[in-house]
Amino acid sequence: MIIVKIILTFMMRSDTIGAEVMNMKFLLKLANQRWASRAAGFLGVVCYLSIGFLALCTVLSVLGRQSFFLHTAAGSYEGAIYAEEEHDPLSRSMTVNMGDSIHVWEGSAGRIDPRIHVGLSLMFAVYALPAMCALWFLSRVCSNIRRGDIFVEQNASCLLCYGMLQFAVAVLVPFVKLLICWLTNLVSDGKVSIATGQSTANMLVPSVACLVAAYIIQYGVGLQDEVDHTL
User: Fold this and answer.
1) 8 A C-beta contact, residue 112 and residue 81
2) Do 73 and 110 form a contact (C-beta atoms < 8 A)?
3) Beta-sheet strand order (sheet of 101-105)
4) Are 111 and 74 contacting, i.e. CB atoms less than 8 angstroms apart?
5) Is the pLDDT reported for residue 169 higher than 70?
């Protein structure tokens, strides 16, 4: 009986080890140079498209097509924009949104003060411009990986810049938006309020991960230099 139990235990362990070996082989197939190069190339294209999209959104914001919740004497309108003349759905096509809750109150003349529009455009710019720069640095890393250059100084520097910019977008930009909102209310005939910082926690983890990755690559570069000098 004891021998049977030993045989069954050995068979179960053998099945577990075999499954682990198969999983490891599958992961190694996915983590080879060919797939990594293709994935990096695809991610680089996504970075460039995202930069272009953010640039277009910034232009639309400057043109007055950033949406907000408008409060007027006649009523309140969700999804209103500065450039619209009538509050109908067709006039709100091609609009942008930062993901923040923005409320605007019209001025004494029954119109939105142009300085509020300037403030809204600045709020969008302080969010979009650092994000565009971060994506550009990430595209440099993808380009290097696609060529097979992984443990190089440029990758460590670009990942460090990407992580720092994403960290700034997550932590500092919300405070800058609040400051712009406060200054806008000081000089404008009307009022604007913003509730921001909802995505801070979601952006902190990737930014810290990139900082750690930058350290790992820099450490690998240092080890490679030591090996080269030793040889």
Assistant:
1) no
2) yes
3) 76-80, 68-71, 101-105, 191-195
4) no
5) yes
* 166 burial level (CB within 10 Å; 0-12, 13-18, 19+): buried
Q: What is the end-to-end Cα distance of the chain in Å, rounded?
A: 59
111 — pLDDT class (breaks 50, 70, 90): confident
pLDDT of residue 222: 77
Q: Does residue 14 carry a pLDDT above 50?
A: no
Residue 75, pLDDT > 50, answer yes
Q: Which residue pairs, CB below 8 angstroms and at least 24 apart, start in 149-157?
A: 150/217, 151/217, 151/220, 151/221, 151/224, 152/217, 152/221, 153/218, 153/221, 155/214, 155/217, 156/214, 156/215, 156/217, 156/218, 156/221, 157/214
Q: What are the structure tokens assigned to 17, written together? A: 């080890």
AA letter at 200: T
For residue 113, what are the contacts with CB-CB under 8 A and spacing of at least 6? 107, 188, 189, 190
